[in-house]
Amino acid sequence: MRFMVGKAKGQRSATRRQVITRFVATAALMATTALTGVMFGSSGARAEDEIRIGVIYPLTGAAASTGVELKAAAELAAAMVNKEIAAPDGLTVAAGLPGLKGAKIKLIFGDHQGNPQVGATEAERLITSEKVVALTGAYFSNVTATASQVAERYGVPFLNAESSSASLTQRNFKWFFRTTPHDDLFVTNFFTFLEDMEKKTGKELRTLGLFNENTLWGNETTKLQVRLSDERKFKIAEKIIYPAKTTQMTSEVQRLKAANPAVIMQSSYLGDAILSMKTYKELGFSPSMLLANDAGFNDSEFLKTLGKDGEYIISREVWALDQAERNPLIKKVNDLMRERSGVNFNGNSARSFTGIAVLADALNRAGSTKPEDIRKALQETNIPGSGLIMPWKGIKFDASGQNELGQGIIVQVQGGQYVTVWPTEVATKPIVFPMPAWDKR
Amino acid sequence: MSNRTVLDPRKALGAVALLAFALLLPLGITDPARLNFFILILMGAQLGVAWNIVGGYAGQVSLGHAVFYGIGAYCSTMLALSLGLSPWIGMLAGGLLAVVFALVMGWPCFRLKGHYFAMATIAVAEIVQILVTNSEFLEGAVGLSLPLDRSGLAAMVFLSKLPYYYIILGLLVVTVLVAWAIERSHIGYYFRAIKDEPEAARALGVSLTRYKLIALSVSAFLTAVGGSFYAQKEMFIDPGSVFVGAISIKIALVAILGGVGTLMGPVLGAVILITIEEYSRTLFGSTGSGTDMIIYAMMIILVAVFSPAGVMGLLQDLRRHLPGAGKTSETR
Question: Which end of chain A has fewer CB atoms < 10 Å from its terminal CB, N or C?
Fold first, then answer.
């Protein structure tokens, strides 16, 4: 580490040539520093009749690809509100903003890089420099936490469409609203789903094997699962918390196999999800049901890597493409998305789209761009499920700002596709149960 | 190295002018986002100067300073949430806890030298992050939120940005003064001896472990104080925001970019690094093409290639070669 710590020994007497090179380098560095500073001061001119909404997403860093998708979805929603693209009738966004005499909304994007402090800095910049009337974002739960803190201080509505940490709506914030269901609800859904399945199939699904990874998410999920199985009289046959990004799972899977639970509840990111499936096959372990907690099991790489071996797993989702088959409105919106940005909607981008739609709906009803009016309108939000592209009953906020009508869905891999199998009212295919054994496929 | 027992009047004047500028700066700023930018610079500078005590003067490169930062943030926040203790006290408590931790961690780690010490600090920081993530007592991954309703000087929560500016400026001044006092005292000479010629220092009777531990403890205390300030400013902490490796790297980067082992080098480094970081993001971040990160990275590469001694080293080289500047060339 010497080279970083101190001057290298020969460096004290630099030659003239070195000095000149260094001088140029310093000058360039200083110039860039100064220049970036000057350019910041001159934000572009803004039209009077445009309503500015701040949108904070991870546009660089590890989650950049997700952030760019979220941005495309938000832009599509804004274009529909502004009538630049004809939205299918019946959709909330199709209404536009007659309440504001057809004003246009303009999205101002901020990049939080997955860093909570940057998220707060961007929120403040958007509110004070860019004069946005409302904020939305930020995908990462911890960034949403700091960015919404800033919005709360300034008294600007913050609509969160895609962060699922339950604690966000337990803070008694006045200006915070969340449309997506949170993690507690997703896990609760699992148990409701299992009870439904028992009724439908007449089979006992009361013994559970919990198989979760050991980072924050896996741990939080485990805690919740243990609590809920107590409350709902399920029995935990085995509980394994494995180290994330592990390179082998043989002993863990052997323990699961020995405990022989009816249902495996698993929370894994991509690499671990693939590894576990390979290990299940190797050891010939096939429970009646493999109930995965989204993440790795729903990654587009999961089926690409596993092919047929990924079949029949069941996972939770917030959205699935087959919803477009069920509902022609969703299909039309998805076609427009594909036309514009070349990708289909997924759970994240569909929720972002919905976030902008909800904000536009509130702005329209408020008929004003005053934060207090927008907040009141958000509180009175009552959008039916038919006006959304989400498999929800609708949008209506409770006192804490949480949407009461949201729900998760449960999908199963069938024929290389994720198809919705639960809840029944949005299901597109019947469930395959029990999961066929490896040698009978 | 010349004997500096007397204060150079020109330097003293410069310091006073700089402080006066910093004190008056917010008066001309009405935009809170702009003021926030200066707060970020001061935060970076304070951490850089604190890191420099162990990483620069004593030459023990730590790439795990996030652990002290996180301890400071969690300690003051936990005390405020559970006992309702003022963060001013919590800040000191966090600092002391960080010192205890530094002593426990330094004892085994200082048996390692150079790169191996740096690696050990990374490992310790990772371990602590995992422990905190899984600690139910500390709310694990969910993180801690400070309530907004308790605002005021005692609670160190303000709606305006101005008090934050002056608090962090005060912390930076204290940190620089500590570094300055160390630089001038015999401890500072011991540190530099340990860095340049550890064997010779030992032969002369300098206890290596003892002085390395002193350097790490002082640095840890000041870094933890910076962490408490972060918690008070953002009002939400989780392991992913205060214990991550990215924080450790940034703290070290500020000092290395500015110039390790120099008093004001980290301050200069923070000005440059934070300016580039913030403005490149503001200008290009919303495009989603990563331009800001490319510019940011290029700047760091440029400095690393052209001057391993940091921007401060560049300036000193230049000064030495400018005509008529021979007299000041001794300064470090």
Answer: C
Question: Which residue of chain B comes nearest to A20, CA vs CA?
Answer: B318
Distances from the Cα of B253 to the Cα of A108, B78, B112, B273, angstroms: 31, 29, 22, 8
A175 and A188 share a domain?
A: no
Residue ranges of B 285-324 with Cβ closer than 8 A to chain A = 285-288, 290, 292-293, 295, 299, 302-303, 306-309, 311, 313-315, 317-318, 321
Name the amino acid, one letter, at B230: Y
Q: What is the mean pLDDT of residues A252-275?
A: 92
Cβ–Cβ below 8 Å for B241 and A29: no
* Contact assignment for A36 to B290 by CB distance below 8 Å: no
Beta-carbon-side half-sphere exposure of residue B224 (alpha carbons within 13 Å): 30
Q: What is the pLDDT of residue A37?
A: 52
Query: Can you give the pLDDT at residue A346?
Result: 85
- Is residue B172 predicted with pLDDT exceeding 70? yes
The answer to whether residues A125 and A72 touch, using CB atoms and an 8 Å cutoff, is: no
For chain B, give the percent of residues with pLDDT over 70: 93
CATH code for the domain of A193: 3.40.50.2300
Q: Are residues A295 and A338 in the same domain?
A: no
Report the domain count for chain A.
2
Q: Could you tell me the pLDDT band of residue A184, with boundaries at 50, 70 and 90?
A: confident
**Record: contact B314-A22, CB cut-off 8 A:** yes
Rounded-to-integer distance, Cα B153 and Cα A329, Å: 54
Q: Are residues A111 and A199 in the same domain?
A: no
Domain that includes residue A71, residue range:
50-181+326-395
Judging contacts by C-beta atoms under 8 Å, the chain B residues touching residue A124 are: 32-33, 36
Quote ipTM for the complex. 0.78
Q: Is the pLDDT of residue B10 over 60?
A: yes
Tell which of B116, B306, B316 to mutate to test the A interface (max A CBs under 10 Å): B306
Query: Taking CA atoms, what residue in B is nearest to A65?
Result: B288
What is the DSSP secondary-structure string of A58-81?
A: --SSTTHHHHHHHHHHHHHHHHHH
A258 in the same domain as A125? no
Residue A155: which region, alpha, beta or left (left: phi > 0; alpha: psi -120 to 50)? Answer: left
Interface contact B318-A59, CB threshold 8 A: no
With a CB cutoff of 8 Å and minimum separation 6, the contacts of B307 are A22, A25, B313, B314, B317
The answer to whether the predicted template modeling score (pTM) of the entire model surpasses 0.90 is no
Q: Could you tell me if residue A42 is inside a domain?
A: no
Which helix (H) or strand (E) segment holds residue A210: the answer is strand A207-213
Do A331 and A293 lie in a common domain?
A: no
Query: A312 and A344 share a domain?
Result: no
Domain range list for chain B: 32-262
